Hints:
The protein is mainly alpha-helical and 111 residues long. The chain contains four helices and no strands. It has helices at 2-30, 34-58, 63-90, 93-107.
Amino acid sequence: MPAxxxxxxxxxxxxxxxxLLTLGTVGLVTRRSVIHAALSIGTMAAxxxxxxxxxxxxxxxxxxxxxxVVTLLWCATPAVLLAALVLRRERRPADVxxxxxxxxxxxxxxx
Length: 111
């Protein structure tokens, strides 16, 4: 009977992982927003990590969990860099110059 439980666990992990990977792929292809793309990549990474963890549990080895964590880190790094670029783009140098001029005017100095 334990073999059936292991096969059921593996099947469930593979099905849910495939669904997450498919939803992430559809979201990545159909959306144009950077935020939606980052969320879709995260969903795809969760699907891959779940599949790897399920395979590792089925074979009674921890390599699945290790590869899952590596996959999440590998996918999270570009998402963090993307968020930093988006935040940097929103705060343009022209905004900083205007703030400096306003501060100088408030202090009574000539800009």
